[in-house]
Amino acid sequence: MLARRIEDLDGGRELNQPLDEAAVLRLVLLNNPTLAASRAERGIAQAQVRDAAMLPNPSIQANLGFLVAGAGDAPAWAAGFAQSLQGLVTRGARRDEARASAQETDARLLWESWVTLSRARQLVVDIVDGERRLAILETTARLLDARGTSLRAALARGDIEAGAAGAVFAVASDARTARDDARHTLQQERAELAALLCLDPGAPLPLAPLPPLAPFDAMRAASDIASMGEHRPDLAALRYGYAAQEARVRGAILSQFPPLSIGLDATRDSSRVLNIGPSVSFDMPLFDRQQSKIAIAEATRQTLHDEYTARIDAAAGEARALLAALIANEPEASPVAADTAPLHAARRAYANGDIDAATYSDLSIAALGQAANDISRDLYRREQRIALEALTGEGLPNALSPRMTP
Predict the structure, then answer these.
(1) Which residue among 42, 73, 169, 346 sits deepest, i.e. has the most Cβ atoms within 10 Å of its Cβ?
(2) Which CATH superfamily hosts domain 34-392?
(3) Which pTM was predicted?
């Protein structure tokens, strides 16, 4: 059920409002229904580890033959105890496979959490900067609408020609469209963030202003790209999957040995003659020597190796492209807060009578447009940094993968 207030979420009462990025991410981890459902898989994987470590059960057989006719004077019986050695031979391989599969599940679930949190981070940035940009677009639309009203009155009086006002009317229409589009986008982003929190879309969700962007550390980013294979969870999951498949190959090879059972049998016939001795049984591998299973396991292992290589190459290429874009945009960095000095100067000049209403409107619209562009550039850089951190797994532990390479 969707919560109607932030306080109704798990951990919501403990947080101060408006929420900063860290508080939003904490609420996502505690309340996101998809992550909660995925975590149930971990219990299944751990149960499979315990199951793989179990020793095979021994088998006991017995039968009783009642004396119906003949020279005997007692019922005959037979009993036997046997233990299969096949399960003992493959137990180590099965246990290693289950452990690697459980670690693969853990890494995959961590990656799902990381992707969800990265999306939540991006939504927080989009919403906070989007609200600032929407406020500017609304102010711009109001100024242009007022300018249009004045021009219509001037047209009605015959003070100006229609062609002189057409450009202003077109710009005002574009400004209203941009405002409405920004408002619609912001509504969608708030609804998506609320869904990640398991919060009703109509519930209040106050967000704190974004902190200033720290200087971009290109050297650290390059180091993260070089080491992403060691701590990116989805790549670690592929390596764990490779380890599990390696154990399957080993298990298939061990299964070539004939299934062998050893035990002890005891029999007594109807004349009370008692026999006790060891027993051995095994299959003759004349037709099925596990060739197909070994071939399938080896082909699957090669597929996982190729998938890992392709995935890490693609991720590294994408991350390097993002890094290049961030480095290229860094010299154009502007302050997070839009420069409102030109707007204030225009207001003072208009209040002092130094400029007329039309000039004031033009200067204000130009200043607001520059402020909106500053916010858009800030939003773009923040989104790129989040995308790069999501790709490289920056901030995640550096000990997720087994020490081997597919």
Answers:
(1) 346
(2) Outer membrane efflux proteins (OEP) (1.20.1600.10)
(3) 0.76
